[in-house]
Amino acid sequence: MTISDIAKLTGVSKSTVSRVLTGNTPVREELKNRVLKVIKKYNYSPNLAARSLSLKKTNTIGVILNLDPNYHFRDYVSMETLRGISVKATEFEIRLSIAIGPVAAILPRLAGERSVDGIIVMGLREGDEKTFNTMHKNSVSITDKVPVLLLNYSSEFKNYPSVAFSHEEDAYSLIKYLTEKGHRRIGIIECSPELVYIKNRKRGFLRAFNDFNLQFKQEWDIQIEGINEDTAGKEAAEYFLSLKEKPSVVVSSSDNIAISFMGRLLASGVKIPYDVSVVGMDDIPISKYVHPALTTEVLDGFSRGKKACEMLCSLIRSEKLKDSRIFIRSAFVERDSLVDLKTGEKADYFLRKKSGP
Description:
It is built from 14 helices and 15 strands. It is an alpha/beta fold.
């Protein structure tokens, strides 16, 4: 079955069939329905390569992983996000091209080569906005060449569409919840503080500390360099053990760090959650099976990936977005690693949805 066959069966021109298939040019409703009826009857699927050539499109979207691959390919939420992008791309009959490396080098090249129809950027760092600003100052607009969508948000990137977790608001809500459990001595473990999402979380933490009159002790802000989460958790635990005055709860920037942190503390005889409570972020599959089971924030990377791909495809089709900035709220699953200081008891398992979209 070809476009010519469909044209003969429907009594319309080949150009009309092509316009129905591409959707780029209006077609009378009666003719459109006639063509679609034949397409459905014969289960016609246009050749992807031929369609790409006719539309001067590649039918490929690029995904830039702007961090060390040892981070992305070990990070559960990153992998779930890629899975969501892949599932939606398959549904749309679009290929994926994954590029790993600094966005400053890869983004201008992909945009200039026109080897992809659109680009998703994952893993923004502080300073990456200079890449976008420099290109605009040189009168080379990235989005004039191909649409670009970001998987993080900060005010420096406000001119670009994005699908991001609401890290700042979620961090604020988490601190509020911990205070309701009686915790006022709250510590934080941060790995790779130059990442945009880590900075967003920090803003939420600090705002909550101020609003709830909590003392922010610098020695309880445990910052670990690098992205080796196993090492980071152990280093954070060694530092925690050295503190004279310790927080009652420690909030980690990932489940992997939290689990490594707990393992070192348990080996030192620390009773979790009674000596110190521990909260992670990601809800990786193993978090419910470690002992004690980890209380954590649930980040839905799969939904983020699907939504990002949907939005980018709309941009490729030159459709106006209803909302160019989407925030995905987390949920909070409470397990055995958090104690209620008001009652002295661990919580029963439950999933608490945070307010917001």
